[in-house]
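Bug #77: duplicate submission created two jobs. Keeping one. Sequence:
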Amino acid sequence: MRDKYLIVLFILIIVAAGAVLFYFEYLAVPEVTQIIEVPEEIIITEEVVVEEEVAVVPEPEPDEELKVQPIQNGNLSLFFIDVGQGDSILIADNYEYALEDCGDKNHGETVVNFLKQRNITELKYLFTSHPDADHIGGCAYVLDNIKVETVVDNGVFSNTQAYEDYYSRIDDEGYTIARKYDEYYIGNSTIKVVYSETLKVEQNDNGIVLMVSRGSVEAVLTGDCTKDCENTIGANVDAEILKVGHHGSKSSTGDPFLNRIEPEFAVISVGENNPYGHPAQEVLERLMKRGIETFRTDLNGNVQIKTDGKSVWVLYDKPATAEQIFTGRD
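Kept job's structure:
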């Protein structure tokens, strides 16, 4: 009897197994697998970093560019603009601007472009150090293209075309004659007249010398002031920053003057390959032996010196070695 049950159970197992096989073979719905083909070339999108575009200021000579150094209006900034064999200095503080000199006639546009690249369309003051063409020649173009609130000089006339072009554009209501110890203000900085003469035999001494100060930092802008002029500047004038007189001529920047003002930084505004032998080797040696950090527009391009009234920073367009800086052209 037991054997009979085992036979029946075995038959049932076989029948069940067959039923399962029949279901999966003929009745079950097959699973559908979607196949996505991956292309052989995979394009990866990278993060694009856009660098700030550096604007340039065109020079009159071809193939030359001046980088734009930004103005940080929380500081006093002095820009010694590269105008070749001439002077032009932008003074900026707290969104107010003054300019001393404009280079020669061929560089008036250079100065205007320099200002406009920095969104400067109005000057509170335009100072002219003296009537030489390499200092005021570009001022007519500046006055034609930039609004100037007040023009300041010491009243010295000249019979040159450069002076006539400059003076003809001055509005009497916006003109003042600078006297020694006069003070002018831009932002948090003071511009003081520390020298003003009109009757000197040497024409380069018939001009003005400015001292720009903020906090404990001072800069002396000497124009073409000679050694005689330097010796009449008050004994209480000292400065961390010196604009070297007369493009580095040996007639300026004497030892007594340097000993008195004790500058830490000096800038020479001078033209490359100029015919005057500027800067003179003896002037450069006076600066070098005192360890004065010196910059030249013929080598460094535009030079910016900025200060918060305590510290001083220097920016420039092009680097130059100490050997280059302290090698004269005479």
